[in-house]
Structure formats: structure tokens, C-alpha cells
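Note to self: keep these together.
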Amino acid sequence: MKKLLLGTVALAALGVPAIAADMGVRPVARPVVAYTNWTGCHVGGLVGIESGSNSGYTTTSGTLGKTIPGAGPGVVFSPGQPWAQGFNMNGFNGGGYGGCDYQVGVWVFGIEGDWSIENKSGQAGPRTTALASNLATPTPLPQTVYTEAQERWYATARGRLGYAVDKWLFFVSGGAAWTKVDSSYSVLGTPAGGSGATYFALQNDRRSGWTAGGGFDYALTTASLMPGWSLRVEYLYINFGSYNTFTNPTIAAGPAGPTGPYIFNLNTKLTDNVLRVGLSYKFGNYAAPVAYK
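Structure:
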């Protein structure tokens, strides 16, 4: 009897795997890898390089000056004449940025602002020209003219539209831009030509314009790095349009008034191309709640 009972138990034990195989065992739930959720606000820092151009300086309907002996102050020049040639500008920038995003499916909508200091500058010269004026003959400008522009900072406020592919966010952006630019020129020689005094004028302008660009963010969510951090590569085109400068310049060297060969009220145009990289932290983990199946 005892042997019969042990045999029955053994047969039952051998038959359990077969029965389980026939019935099918429900697999253990395994977590699905969490996807990247870009909803939230972020702050970060950035550095970059930039180039651009200054169109040079041309006369306007309000251009005044004196360039020859005996002409007296307040000579009016015909508008649209090139007075100083254009030049390229190059430099570096660094600053911070921040914004907020909201993700709907694969689309990400956001707003962002940034501010950077910069050392972008460019120069041109020498140049000698003659300008048509209200005098009987064109007004010569025999002096050697050097011009320079330096951008000190820029800032933008933009809207963003992005397309999310897990850890990647590809985006375009556009909005308003602002900058501070220092413009200066120096004139070497006397009003009659030759060597002599050096004249120097400087003006600080704050300009507004528009910007558009694009780039991508990459979420750093590996085990070796803290969640919430992301890398960025971005390009911006900035256009500050045409504007008048030297409207009220500081005379830093040389005599002013009737004895100085200064030109006032000149028009120029400024554009920028910015390529920058950034690192930002988003408040809240990039990972969405873990889903199961």
C-alpha cells in the first residue's frame, strides 16, 4: 500500500509540467522601457561662436558734417551715398537660457528666452571718398577713415515647435532679439589732407530685431548621469535691420564743431549667425511613468 501511494505521488509530480505546458502559464509582467517626456521647465548655460556682417555706413537725408576748410559747419549731404565700406564680424558668446515645454504626442510646444555676453567685432578701412552735398561741388573727404563695430550682448525671446523621437527633440524656433552695439570711426589727417590730428567718434546703440533658427536637444538619461539633464546644439539667424547711428556721438579725440571733420547721422545694417551648444536641467525626470503589459 505504501509503495502504491509513493508511485502515485511520483506520477503526479511528473505530469504537472506537461499539464502546465498544455494549459499555458501566464508570463510575469515586465516593465516597458519608459519613454522620454519633454513636458516641463528647464534652465541651462550655453557657449558658442558667431559671425555676421555690418553693411557699412551710408548717408541719409539727415546727414550733416564738415569735411573741407572754409565750408563751415552743417554741410548737408545727399542721402544714400556710401561713406564707409562694409565688413564682416566674428566672435564668441556665452550665457544662459531657460523655458518651458508641453508635449502632445510627438509634438512639443514651448517658449524660451536667453541672454549672452559677446565679443563680436569687425573693422574696415582705410577708405577715401567724395560726397555730393549742398555745396556747388562734391565735398571731398581726403582723410583716411577707419570704422569699427562691437556687439556687447544679445538676448532673444522665442517660441519653439519640436518633434520628439524618444531622447531626441528636433525643434525650430523664432521670435524677437535685442543687442547692444558700439559703433566708432576714426579719421586720420587734417581736413585738407596729409598728416595731422586724429579724430575719433563713438556711439552706443541698443537695437531690436527678429531671429529664427533650429537645432536639437538630447536627453541624458543613462545610469551614469543624473536624469533631467540634456545637451543642445542650436543655430540662430538674427537680423537687426537698418538703423541710424552717430546721431549724437561722443567725441573722444580731436576738436569738435567747425574745426572737426565729423559726419553725423549715418545708416547701417547689422546681422548675426550664431552657432552654440548648451547644457540644461529640466525640473522633473525626463522619464514618464513606467507602463506594463
